[in-house]
Automatic annotation (TrEMBL):
MF terms (GO), sorted A to Z: 4-hydroxy-tetrahydrodipicolinate synthase activity
Keyword list, A-Z: Lyase, Schiff base
InterPro entries with a match to the protein in the record: Aldolase_TIM (IPR013785), DapA-like (IPR002220), Schiff_base-form_aldolases_CS (IPR020624)
Composition-biased stretches (Polar residues): 1-13
Keyword Lyase assigned: yes
Disordered: annotated span: 1-20
Name of the protein described by the UniProt record: Aldolase
The keyword Lyase is assigned to this record: yes
Gene3D superfamilies attached to this UniProt entry: Aldolase class I (3.20.20.70)
Length: 347
């Protein structure tokens, strides 16, 4: 049986947040150059590679998948493709014995009704949470009250519990203040947030706020390079792109923090966590510089998943300088691969 969550907002029931753990915003794989299906303008989905990657992550300890977030190129994927993508990965996880791994589906629409339509279709396809990107087209003119009312309107009618996706880098620098998060966190159908920015004081004001019920509203960092700091201020985990390449490395840091907290953190624990966080930060530089293009390039070069040529236009083509660009990252990623394989052997 697939992972499920109960919700009935019409009777005021409070939705439950997703299980705590490391999630991956997975890239969407498209048919590779040279295949019969390839189309240089709009290559079709490559569901075989998509499923291989999903199972690679599940075996590596990832708690669940975020499909069609920014890394998943949601804005380039048609609605019909969304449903096939989500349902295929739900089936792949279920068939392999990972029915307990939830799927969170992203939306990137500006219109409330369109967002609600996507959420409904995503639920039918197998998603159990929706990660809703803030409406950033008119960001300079949008008030905090307007942002609050927009998310409340979505949450009131959404058939899935929602997480607020705050990513100023793709929303015209839309700013959602900690005070607005405090108001939204009280909604029974809003169960958390993914914070994809490095404003650590704002993250603290949300994750540690005494005016938020943190049993109901979870704070995930969208940046693995902030995982350890965010855990210390009350965040629950990360929705992290590097974990899509080295799942065991990122999961290891998450588990070390919780294990050491439970038994009493030692100096050795702190040193090990710092070392892991340092290694993660090194790897995250490719994500910060190249986004989904860098993520796909690394997956292809490190694990032979996909062809590493980016996504749909205008992202198609991968690194502009090919091998020369990869040389800048190769040593770091070789080291992370060795670490990933060491953790796998110790399982």
């Amino acid at each position: 049986m697939s992972f499920n969550t109960e919700l009935n907002t019409s009777r005021g029931a409070q939705a439950s947040p997703p299980p705590q753990g490391i999630y991956v915003p997975v890239p969407t794989f498209f048919a590779a150059e040279g295949t019969a299906e390839y189309d240089p303008i709009s290559p079709p989905l490559d569901l075989k590679t998509q499923s291989e990657h999903s199972l690679f992550l599940a075996k590596g300890g990832i708690k669940g998948l975020v499909i069609l977030g920014s890394t998943g190129e949601a804005i380039f994927v048609r609605n019909e493709e969304r449903s096939r993508l989500i349902s295929s990965q739900r089936k792949a996880l279920d068939d392999a014995g990972y029915a307990d791994r939830p799927i969170i589906a992203g939306t990137a629409t500006q219109n409330i009704d369109d967002t609600l339509d996507l959420i409904k279709a995503d639920k039918e396809a197998g998603a159990v949470y929706s990660m809703v990107l803030g409406p950033g087209y008119f960001a300079p003119s949008t008030s905090q009250r307007g942002i609050q009312k927009w998310f409340e309107a979505v949450a009131d009618k959404a058939v899935l519990p929602i997480l607020i996706y705050h990513y100023p880098g793709v929303t015209n620098n839309l700013y959602i203040s900690p005070a607005t998060f405090e108001k939204l966190a009280g909604h029974p159908n809003i169960v958390g947030t993914k914070l994809s920015h490095g404003i650590i004081d704002d993250q603290t004001l949300i994750a540690a706020s005494p005016r938020i019920d943190h049993e109901h509203f979870y704070v995930f960092t969208g940046l693995g390079q902030n995982l350890l700091p965010v855990l210390t201020i009350g965040g629950v985990a990360a929705i992290d792109a590097l974990a899509g390449i080295f799942p065991r490395v990122v999961v290891r840091l998450y588990r070390l923090f919780h294990d050491s907290t439970a038994k009493g953190t030692t100096k050795q624990d702190i040193e090990e966590m710092r070392e892991l966080q340092y290694r993660i930060c090194e790897g995250e530089k490719i994500v910060a510089r190249w986004g989904v293009v860098g993520t796909k390039e690394a997956l292809a070069r490190v694990w032979s998943l996909g062809d590493g040529k980016g996504g749909r236009l205008p992202l198609a083509g991968g690194f502009e300088d090919g091998d020369e660009e990869w040389k800048k990252w190769a040593k770091t990623f070789e080291g992370l691969k060795q670490l990933e394989e060491e953790f796998q052997k110790s399982e």
